[in-house]
Amino acid sequence: MTRLAGSISMLAVMTVLGMGSALADTADKKIALSNNYAGNSWRQAMLRSWDKVTKPAVTAGIVAAADPFTTAENQVTEQAAQIQNLVLQGYNAIVLNAASPDALNGAVKEACDAGVIVVSFDGIVTEPCAWRIAVDFKQMGKDEVLYLKDKLPKGGNILEIRGLAGVFVDDAISKGIHEAVAENPQFKIVGSVHGDWDQAKAQAAVAGILPSLPNDIVGVVTQGGDGYGAAQAFKAAGRTTPIIIMGNRQDELAWWKEQKDANGYETMSASIAPGVSTLAFWVAQQILDGKDVPKDLTVPFLRVDQATLDKSLETTEKGGVANVEYSAEDAQKVVDAAKK
Amino acid sequence: MNAEPGFIRRLVAKPWLWAYVAAAAVWLVTILFTGGRGGGEVLTAAFTFATFSVIVGIGQLYVVTLGPGNVDLSIPATITLAGAVATKVMDTQDGLILVGLIVALACGVAVGCFNYALIIILRIPPIIATLSSSFLIQSTAIAYGRGIRIKPPAALADFTTAQVLGMPVLALCVIALAAVMEIVLRRTVYGRWVTAIGQNMRAARLAGVNVGRTRFTAYVMSAVFAGLCGYLLSGFSGGSSLSMGEEYLLTSIALVVIGGSSVAGGYSNVPGLWGAALFLFLVVTMLNTYGFGAGLRYLSTGLIIIAVIVAASARKATR
């Protein structure tokens, strides 16, 4: 059944390709976004960015369609079925934020075999036929410690807030942090909790472990979405606020600004911009256009520093995440960088 | 709670005792690590966060007491919706605190009525009905709030984080609330009806219990408590978020079970909820304090919970 459907859509794709090749154009190509989760502010911003960039692209006739689809339950089986449906519906490319790096490989392979371009981003897939737009999460973890080293040359005790256990992003960031700490032995990780990238959970976890930690915590390394909760927990415990690395959420940036204005508080903030979905869109468009694009691309993370805080906060909507939307030229730059 | 003679013997026979014993043991092990330092602060934190789970736990307990198959899975979504709507309505103004509370509770009433309508009019089993309504509610919350975190009014934030001698004020209020709900369950006609339905719905109906109205009230109450929790939680954690209710689904059910109530309904107690809530928070704190990895932590949490439930039910059997 699937094979039959596959060959039919293969035929369809070949016909389309045959007609389109003379024009080297993507005006008749359909791109779909397959998204596994929408239940937090980051994902909401990601979907909004997608709309903001792809709707004008469709109106301008660059592509025929760019429809977002989100699964309800954040489950691998559900997303695999969704990918199969998208293939059957005749999309030429699927931009994918995957629920799992490897469990969707079967569905992704089927899509590739049916001639559909699959571009994964943020939650990437390991299937070789797909493109990957990844963030160097390990480097992000390292950068946090390097920032602390810059600010606190003497070192000290730090608390680590991790993300959702079992997700590779959590492992990657944490690995970067631990490697950097090993290289800088003046720092010591005295406690580690899982905040699940969620302010409320981070707050509860930090409030629980704080009493058992020494009083001189100088820094908190985080993964994003948990900094504000950590700050609340330190405040509730009546402790001095250490340098808490933030994760670009608007509430985190607003809190940082408040502290900065009140007492000159300094920190940094980094995260992957939700607009990376639009970068993936342009990459998919370029692949459809017949451009030669390497399979592994790296997107720089979006970093906010003391100097850029005010501007970033202004452009970040309430409840959102500091964001940038990417243009076709940005995508071209990322592709060129990967070719070198 | 019982100042009558034979107090100790009565206490030992209580099914909720084990949750408290476990909580105390876990607390002791935790402060053993720090050599006694920070013991009070750990308890303060435990009471702070247990408060919110107890609020939804009470509602869940009444629903579960109704008998096999009765459970409210829409609690997390209701928390999120009520939090989002309330913070938006209050718009950081102290003067609108009461309005926000009323709106949050109204969200609960609406959800409860909707849940029960699905159950009774469309004859959908409660698990499926509340699960599907939770999708609708969560989607409403997403569409309505768009994940925007609006700060709570300062007065509400102050109230939800206030402490008296290291004891959160909110926890004291919820202890009082739990006491009232225990009396309602044990001493009022309504509470006896809930229990009677859970033990045997047919017998209860023949005995003249208004089954429909009793069940309806329990579902609405559960949703209203979830709404209250969403309201207070958004005040406590500096605004509402789309994932704020997530952890309260399993927690609310776990509290009922660990607290010594029967998951099959008919035999419930409210005091156990507090013991179980403190226990659950302290277990995570203990494992964090000892620095176990995530895998080992989940494993031990599971094992400890099984141990407590087994101990509690063994107690009942030998009674």
TrEMBL record, chain A:
Xref: SUPFAM superfamilies: Periplasmic binding protein-like I
Residue ranges constituting the Periplasmic binding protein domain according to the UniProt record: 31-292
Compartmental location: Cell envelope
Keyword annotations: Signal
UniProt KW Signal keyword: yes
Gene3D superfamilies in the record: 3.40.50.2300
Keyword Signal assigned: yes
Region forming the signal peptide: 1-24
A Pfam family reported for this protein in Swiss-Prot or TrEMBL: Peripla_BP_4
CDD domains: PBP1_ABC_sugar_binding-like
Protein family (similarity comment): Belongs to the bacterial solute-binding protein 2 family.
Record's protein name: Ribose transport system substrate-binding protein
UniProt source species: Kaistia dalseonensis
Automatic annotation (TrEMBL), chain B:
TM region positions: 16-35, 42-63, 96-119, 126-145, 165-185, 216-236, 248-266, 273-290, 296-314
UniProt xrefs under InterPro entries: ABC_transp_permease
Pfam family for this entry, one: BPD_transp_2
CDD domains: TM_PBP1_transp_AraH_like
Record keywords: Cell inner membrane, Cell membrane, Membrane, Transmembrane, Transmembrane helix, Transport
Membrane topology label: Multi-pass membrane protein
Major localization class: membrane
Compartments it resides in: Cell membrane
Protein's job: Part of the ABC transporter complex LsrABCD involved in autoinducer 2 (AI-2) import. Probably responsible for the translocation of the substrate across the membrane.
Subunit structure: The complex is composed of two ATP-binding proteins (LsrA), two transmembrane proteins (LsrC and LsrD) and a solute-binding protein (LsrB).
Record's protein name: Autoinducer 2 import system permease protein LsrD
Provenance organism: Kaistia dalseonensis
